[in-house]
Each structure stands twice: as C-alpha cells, then as structure tokens.
Amino acid sequence: xxxxxxxxxxxxxxxxxxxxxxxxxxxxxxxxxxxxxxxxxxxxxxxxxxxxxxxxxxxxxxxxxxxxxxxxxxxxxxxxxxxxxxxxxxxxxxxxxxxxxxxxxxxxxxxxxxxxxxxxxxx
Length: 123
Hints:
Number of strands: 0
Order of helices and strands: HHHHHH
Number of helices: 6
Radius of gyration: 27 Å
Shape: flat
Largest sheet: none
C-alpha cells in the first residue's frame, strides 16, 4: 500500500490545485448580476442570427483528413531517425524498406481515394 502513497498524494495535490482557486473565487468574488452581465452577448448589440448555425460537412471532412494524414506522416519520423541503423544492418535492410514502402503506398492510396471522391474540393 505504501507504494501507492506518492500517487495518492499527487492526485490529491492536483485536485487541490485545480479546485481550490475556483472555489475561492466563487466564495470570495463579488456577485453583482445585472441585465447587461446576464445578457448572452456583451459586444454591444444583439446577435444577428442563431449562434448554433450549421457548418458545412466538408469543413469537418477536410479537418479530419488533415488530422489523419498529419498523424500518419508523424509515423515517418521514428523510421527516419533509425534509418542509418536499418541500412547498416544487412538482415533488416530489405525488411525495413519494404515495410515503409507498404506504409507509404497505403498512405498514397488513401490520399488518391480522398482526392477522387472530391473530399479535397472546396466550392
């Protein structure tokens, strides 16, 4: 049980540091609501339309594609850092090359598919 004591203390300190300032601000802070403060917008005028307007699905699609390809490209960095070791070792030279070639081919196929489906087009 004593092995878990540092973890318990870490969690408790984290909760205290996160909750205590918020609770102190709520208890000690001034509470003077008025109609201006309680209005939904404090920019000087009322909203023109509903704040919950719909976004085009293509916006989300391009954002998801960006995250997807960005993360896949991030997998190339570990391979690039050990590239000298892969090339130096005769036993894994061909294996390392083929594995990364398969990865890049799958990445390119996904990119071509998204391009062919028109997911990258913006009107």
